Amino acid sequence: MIKGIGIDLIELNRIQEKIEHNERFIKRILTDKEQELYSSLTGVMRKVEYLAGRFAAKEAFAKAAGTGIGKLSFQHIEILPNEQGAPRIIVQGFNDDNIFISITHSKEYAMAQVVIEDNN
């Protein structure tokens, strides 16, 4: 049974401005493991896409969970690649649920969709 669906869209230039004006923004959004992947990327735009995609995905999850960011922190949600390189989402306190995620980018936007399914 589906428990929640969330979607989020973010402008890449908005994320780029945040990175340029606030060094702490990256640490606020990304977990330590996500920051390692971020640091390994080459090119400014690839880093912006990565961060924007993770931001959108975490917002989409919060919407699907019905909590919004606030009760749930960006640090409670981690998105890492699986063996094939596709995003896999791990969320503290949601171990009993199946969580499906999709992240996409265009020239100007990053978008993510999350579906939470009851595993019982």
TrEMBL record:
<feature type="domain" description="4'-phosphopantetheinyl transferase">
    <location>
        <begin position="4"/>
        <end position="112"/>
    </location>
</feature>
<keyword id="KW-0460">Magnesium</keyword>
<keyword id="KW-0276">Fatty acid metabolism</keyword>
<dbReference type="InterPro" id="IPR004568">
    <property type="entry name" value="Ppantetheine-prot_Trfase_dom"/>
</dbReference>
<dbReference type="GO" id="GO:0006633">
    <property type="term" value="P:fatty acid biosynthetic process"/>
</dbReference>
<keyword id="KW-0443">Lipid metabolism</keyword>
<dbReference type="GO" id="GO:0008897">
    <property type="term" value="F:holo-[acyl-carrier-protein] synthase activity"/>
</dbReference>
<keyword id="KW-0444">Lipid biosynthesis</keyword>
<dbReference type="InterPro" id="IPR002582">
    <property type="entry name" value="ACPS"/>
</dbReference>
<dbReference type="InterPro" id="IPR008278">
    <property type="entry name" value="4-PPantetheinyl_Trfase_dom"/>
</dbReference>
<dbReference type="GO" id="GO:0005737">
    <property type="term" value="C:cytoplasm"/>
</dbReference>
<keyword id="KW-0963">Cytoplasm</keyword>
<comment type="similarity">
    <text>Belongs to the P-Pant transferase superfamily. AcpS family.</text>
</comment>
<dbReference type="GO" id="GO:0000287">
    <property type="term" value="F:magnesium ion binding"/>
</dbReference>
<feature type="binding site">
    <location>
        <position position="8"/>
    </location>
    <ligand>
        <name>Mg(2+)</name>
    </ligand>
</feature>
<feature type="binding site">
    <location>
        <position position="59"/>
    </location>
    <ligand>
        <name>Mg(2+)</name>
    </ligand>
</feature>
<comment type="function">
    <text>Transfers the 4'-phosphopantetheine moiety from coenzyme A to a Ser of acyl-carrier-protein.</text>
</comment>
<dbReference type="Pfam" id="PF01648">
    <property type="entry name" value="ACPS"/>
</dbReference>
<keyword id="KW-0275">Fatty acid biosynthesis</keyword>
<keyword id="KW-0479">Metal-binding</keyword>
<keyword id="KW-0808">Transferase</keyword>
<protein>
    <recommendedName>
        <fullName>Holo-[acyl-carrier-protein] synthase</fullName>
        <ecNumber>2.7.8.7</ecNumber>
    </recommendedName>
</protein>
<dbReference type="InterPro" id="IPR037143">
    <property type="entry name" value="4-PPantetheinyl_Trfase_dom_sf"/>
</dbReference>
